[in-house]
Amino acid sequence: MRGVATIAASSADPRLALPEVAGKVAAEVADALGRGDLPLVLGDCSSAVGAVAALAAALAGDVVLIWLDAHGDLNTPETSLSGYLGGMPLAVITGRGPEWWARGVEAGLPLPDRCVALVGTRDLDPAEVTAVATGGIRIFPASLLRDPAARAGALQEIRDRISQASGVFFHLDVDVFDPALVPAVAFPVARGLTFADVFDLACCCRGSSTTVLSVASFDPCAPGAAAPAERLVACVGGLARVLVCPPTASKE
Q: Largest alpha-carbon pair distance within the chain?
């Protein structure tokens, strides 16, 4: 990274704020990609909307989106059980709505389902189960990656998907980790991934020439967040090294 941009909306109204932030994030990510940098996007999952759009626009949609999240983020205002906007970004990215949210970006969205891999997921709402079952999003649940008999095959499938694209968007919602490792999240779900699991997934990106890294949803104000924060910072640093220098990166 060569610079840090802090992005805020000028309105508290989500219908104005979210499209505005998406457009600003898209512009910053496009600028970083143009310089040949690795864009690192921090915030909650909603921040990924503009960032995905920028990468997809730059590569004419020839991307793979690796969305690591305990949840599906495929809800809409009509299907959400909670109304939580952070549970909707992947629905926006894949064209399921809400449409007003994507109006802040000029190009890149929607991203076709075939470009999306939902990884580490273990808590889907009913409407999200239907969206996955009837659409083309490939899901790699946490249980699959924890299964020694299935893990190698799952990682190879992800690796094959990435090798066929010009770029990869690596989105890490930290609630994909097991809560014993990173408890400082709003919606913890048991039986999540380990740091080694996420590192191995990043290693699947070796050979990709264009990458964006997004890290979301860690709560630094949560009780006992200091120790997990240190582990998470080390993890993100390791991921960035792998994604920037895929051919020579190592776990050390």
A: 50
Provide CB contacts within 8 A for 125, sequence distance 6+: 72, 75, 79, 80, 81, 87
* Identity at 182, one-letter amino acid code: V
Compute the half-sphere exposure of residue 66: CA atoms within 13 Å on the CB side of its CA: 32
Cβ–Cβ contacts within 10 Å for residue 186, how many?
12
* Region for residue 222 given its phi and psi (left: phi exceeds 0; alpha: psi -120 to 50; beta: otherwise): beta
Q: What is the pLDDT of residues 55-113, one digit of tens each?
A: 999 999 999 999 999 999 999 999 998 889 999 999 999 999 899 999 999 999 999 99
Q: Minimal CA–CA distance to 174: which of 212, 138, 241, 228?
A: 228
Cβ contact 198:240 at 8 Å: no
- The Cα 184–Cα 120 span in angstroms is 18
Region at 170 (left for phi over 0; alpha for psi -120 to 50; beta for the rest):
beta
Pairwise CA distance, residues 172 & 42, whole Å: 10
Which of 67, 62, 65 has its CA nearest to residue 165? 62
